[in-house]
Amino acid sequence: MSVSPTQQHSDREPGTDEVTREQRYVSGLYAKLDEERELAQTRLDAVLGQSGGTPQARTERDVATSTHSDRLAQLGSVEQGLCFGRLDFHDDETTYVGRLGLFDEDHDYEPLLLDWRAPAARPFYLATAASPEGVRRRRHIRTLSRKVVGVDDEILDLSAADQGHDLGLAGEAALLAALERKRTGEMSDIVATIQAEQDQIIRDELGGVLVVQGGPGTGKTAVALHRAAYLLYTYRQQLASRGVLVVGPNSTFLRYIGQVLPSLGETGVLLATTGRLFPGATARGTDSRETAEVKGRVTMVDVLTAAVRDSQRVPGEVIEIVVESETLRITGEIAERAREKARATLRPHNVARRVFADSVVDALTEQATEHLEVDLFEGVPEIAFEEGESTDATVLDTRDVDEIRAELANSPEVREAIESLWPTVTPQRFLREFYASAERIASAAGEWLTEAERGLLARAAKSPWTTADMPLLDELAELLGEDDADQKAKQAKREREERAYAEGVLHIMEQDDELADEEILRVGDILDAELFAERQERRSALTAAQRAARDRNWTFGHVIVDEAQELSPMDWRLLMRRCPSRSMTLVGDVAQTGAPAGASSWDEMLSPYVEDRWRLRELTVNYRTPSEVMALAAVALREVDPALSVPTSVRDTGNRPWRAEAAEADLPTFAESELASVDGGTVAVLVPQGRLGAVRDAFAALLDTAAERLSVLAVEEAKGLEYDAVVVFAPEEITKGSARGWNDLYVALTRATKRLGIVHDGPLAPALSAASEPGPAPG
Ligand SMILES: Nc1ncnc2c1ncn2[C@@H]1O[C@H](COP(=O)(O)OP(=O)(O)OP(=O)(O)O)[C@@H](O)[C@H]1O
Question: Which intervals carry biased composition (Basic and acidic residues) (predicted)?
Answer without folding.
Answer: 9-23, 58-69
